[in-house]
Design a protein that fits this description.
Elements (H helix, E strand, L loop, with lengths): L4 E3 L1 H10 L6 E6 L3 H15 L3 E6 L1 H11 L2 E7 H5 L5 E10 L1 E5 L19 E4 L5 H12 L3 H4 L3 E4 L2 H10 L4 E5 H6 L6 E4 L8 E8 L6 H9 L3 H9 L3
Parallel strand pairs: 1-3, 2-3, 2-4, 7-8, 7-9
Antiparallel strand pairs: 4-11, 5-11, 6-9, 6-10
Length: 241
């Protein structure tokens, strides 16, 4: 049986209220980083025998649940969200850079992101710009590339990157803006993806923010050290971070 607990956000508060598995440290992250962090948690357990509980959602959910539960020790995401969160952090650990891509469903062949303007593409998924960093990045990209008004009626807004990915896999949308990490994770189930021009959106700096009060816990220190060891670095490179 899998010893990790990967907790749906709807169940997160009740779980913390019951104080289940209180002996483990808990990390949280934007849903678009679930794949690499789950892999890192698995490698961490193999190497140390210690467990990581992990929760994922849009950053507003993560921030809200962190404040309510008091159990989250490290949050992963873009530092701009941390600065606006109202949470006190003792320090930040750089993980890598986030990259925005346009992905498309199987059955389509896209050679340029500008093709989203074409009439053949009718439904474009985008994460909520107020809740997800890649939604904000996609919104900036569309504006700065001159496509916002042209594709406005095609946009389907959802809460998180994985929701866009799920719609791509199911074929419910033609294209969607997601991060390269999720695109790599679903690449066998979609038609393909293209990187968005980085000069057209604010750089995404992925960091691990240590919530104040947890910085001196031995298990937190051990996990943060593991983030820079070869196993973790290989996972981050695999997912384009």
């Amino acid at each position: 049986m899998n010893k990790h607990i990967y907790i749906p956000l709807l169940l997160l508060f009740s779980l913390f209220s019951l104080n289940l598995r209180a002996e483990n440290i808990t990390i949280a992250a934007g849903a678009g980083y679930k794949r690499p962090l789950v892999d890192i948690a698995n490698e961490y357990e193999k190497k140390t025998g210690k467990h990581i509980d992990a929760v994922f959602g849009n950053m507003h959910q993560i921030i809200s649940q962190t404040k309510m539960s008091g159990n989250v020790s490290v949050i992963f995401g873009d530092k701009t969200f941390f600065d606006q969160s109202g949470i006190n952090f003792s320090g930040y650990y750089p993980v890598g850079n986030g990259n925005l891509v346009l992905a498309w469903r199987k059955g389509l062949h896209v050679t340029s992101i500008e093709e989203i303007r074409n009439k053949e593409i009718t439904r474009i998924g985008i994460p909520d710009a107020n809740k997800a960093v890649y939604g904000r990045a996609a919104t900036e990209y569309l504006k700065n590339s001159g496509s916002s008004s042209i594709v406005a009626q095609k946009l389907i807004t959802v809460a998180t990157v994985p929701q866009v990915s799920a719609y791509l896999v199911s074929g419910e949308i033609d294209c969607g803006f997601i991060n390269i990490t999720d695109a790599i994770g679903i690449q066998d189930k979609i038609g393909g993806y293209l990187a968005a021009d980085k000069s057209l959106y604010t750089p995404i700096l992925i960091q691990g923010g240590v919530v104040s009060g947890f910085e001196n816990q031995p298990d937190v220190k051990t996990f943060l050290k593991f983030l820079y060891e070869k196993e973790s670095m290989a996972i981050l490179r695999h997912y384009g971070i």
